[in-house]
Amino acid sequence: MDGGGMDGGKGAAVGRAGGVRAVRPGASLRRGTGLLVGARARLRWVHLILGGALLMPYLLLAQVGVGAAAGGVNVLASFPLTLLSYAVSLPLIAVTGVFGLVRPLSVTAVRVLTGVPGDLLADGPARSWGARWRASAWWTLHLGIGAVVSGMTLAVPPLGLVLIVLPFSGALRASVWGAGGFGAWAEPWLSPLIGAALLTALAAVCAGAGALLARLAPVLLGPTAADRLAAAEERAADLAVRNRLARELHDAVGHALSAVTLQAGAARRVLDRDPEFVREALAAIEETTRRTVGELDAVLGLLRDGDPARADAMPAPTLAGDLDGLLARTRAGGTVLTAEQDPGPSGDWTQLPAIASREAYRIVQEGLSNALRHGAGPITLLLRVHTSEGHRELEITMTNPPAQPPPAHDGARRTTGGRGLHGAAERAALLGGRVEAGPHGEHWRLRAVLPLGAAPVTGGGR
Fold first, then answer.
1. How far is residue 148's CA from residue 86's CA, in Å, rounded to a whole number?
2. CA 195, 197, 198, 203 torsion: positive or negative?
3. Cα(154)–Cα(132) distance, integer angstroms
4. Sheet holding 434-440, edge to edge
5. Domain with CATH 3.30.565.10 in the chain
6. How far is CA 447 from CA 71, 252, 415, in A?
7. What is the mean pLDDT of residues 323-345?
8. What pairing do the DSSP bridges indicate for beta strands 443-454 and 434-440?
């Protein structure tokens, strides 16, 4: 016995080392029971019962029609006519299944009750006829199979329970066997086995039907090519809004920090010598921060609301509204800034399209921020509207001497930049324009060209 025990222990050890896993009968039984009556199987049974309940109005309507066609016969008293009514109800179900709202209702029920991952199912109403017919096929299957399962659920459990308790009830045994119900093919002791087999078969049918619908749900209720395209367009629109908000934050906050830093530094250097300059610098700092806090508040409000449609309604500064203020706040830090403005024949910036005026303001703001952070010496700015090949264009040109890079041993913080110019290029691209930035002779130059549309036709006539 000791030797056998040792061999048995060694065999078990070898089995574990070799990765062999013994399957216990109890585990298999529990797994099989879970598949038949587990939590997921029960939820899928509820889903099937829901389909049977939804079929009832169609079945009642079909019974009225079948009864009238059969000469006023009571359909409920005839099993063949009931089956015919069920068959007639299926085309009615298929026709109503093409309505767009059928798919979202079905998807919601599938997600909650069948355990199908939500990312395999489509969102929203069916947009194309292909998606509608697939949803119709699902609707018909769900209600048709659900009706069969519902009928079995109503009929089989009472019969199975009667058969299980039959040997233990003399009155039942006498009535059933006395009437010849089972005497021809079964003995009383077999009835519990037959009853248990019927209940097991019902559970297996319900579990199988639920698994079948769960497998078909992604096929019939999954996203179509049109759904995927719509989702991609929605994601692209959301990304565009997020990018715009990011550009607004970068341009507004970045310029404000650059301007405030220079203004505060200039004020500190002349604090004892020029109190009037310090007073102007502090006023400019106050104005800059107040405006930036307002813009930051607007952007954060949009982010909190999560409504992309409101992004276009967000207030933003324009050339007509704040260009002079932007230039004045930049000069308040002691920066020498020469600006030449030529709005064209209109004489002012109010005639520019609103979106062009807004994006041009941000491009000028970003150019000034770059010049303040990375440049040295005076800044020259030129804004002019001109006509090129029959189309009006707004040209923005900004030049300034580049700053000398700090020595390698200098511990001063270096700014890598890059996002602002990329954002300026995106702004110009939205309008079909372009941005060029880089060394130009001994200076750094930023040049942007924004199209404004066809030039107005002018000329005299007789």
1. 10
2. positive
3. 32
4. 337-342, 379-388, 391-400, 443-454, 434-440
5. 229-406+415-454
6. 88, 20, 22
7. 84
8. antiparallel
Q: Mind listing the pLDDT tens digit for each residue in 132-177?
A: 999 999 999 999 999 999 999 999 999 889 888 887 877 766 666 6
Q: If we measure between CA atoms, which residue out of 422, 354, 425, 357 comes closest to residue 385?
A: 357
Residue 189 has pLDDT above 60, yes or no: yes
Contact 255, 368 (CB under 8 A): yes
The amino acid at 10: K
What SS3 class is residue 392? strand
Query: Distance between CA atoms of 57 and 89, rounded to whole angstroms?
Result: 9
Give helix 39-69 / helix 102-113 axis angle, nearest 10°.
Answer: 140
Using alpha carbons, list the distances in angstroms from residue 358 to 71, 294, 364: 78, 16, 10
281-300 per-position pLDDT tens digit: 788 788 778 777 777 777 77
- At 109, the amino acid letter reads A
CATH dotted code for 229-406+415-454: 3.30.565.10
- The residue count of the chain comes to 462
Beta bridge partners of 460: none
In the chain, the N- to C-terminal Cα span, in Å, equals: 127
CB 355 within 8 A of CB 413: no
Q: Which helix (H) or strand (E) holds 430?
A: helix 419-430
337-342 vs 434-440, strand pairing mode: unpaired
Residue 93 makes CB contacts below 8 A (sequence gap 6+) with 55, 58, 139, 140, 143, 144
User: In whole angstroms, how far apart are CA 136 and each of 60, 97, 233?
Assistant: 20, 4, 26
Give the span between the Cα atoms of 354 and 319, in whole angstroms. 9
Residue 224's nearest CA partner among 67, 100, 354 is: 100
Long-range contacts of residues 151-154, Cβ cutoff 8 Å, at least 24 apart: 151/52, 152/202, 152/205, 152/206, 153/45, 153/49, 153/202, 153/206
Task: Summarize the confidence of residues 351-364 as an average pLDDT.
Answer: 87
Q: Strand pairing of 379-388 and 337-342?
A: parallel
| 206 phi and psi angles, rounded to 5 deg | -65, -45
Query: Parallel, antiparallel, or unpaired for β 379-388 and 391-400?
Result: antiparallel
Give the Cα-Cα-Cα angle 32, 37, 39 (nearest 5 degrees).
110
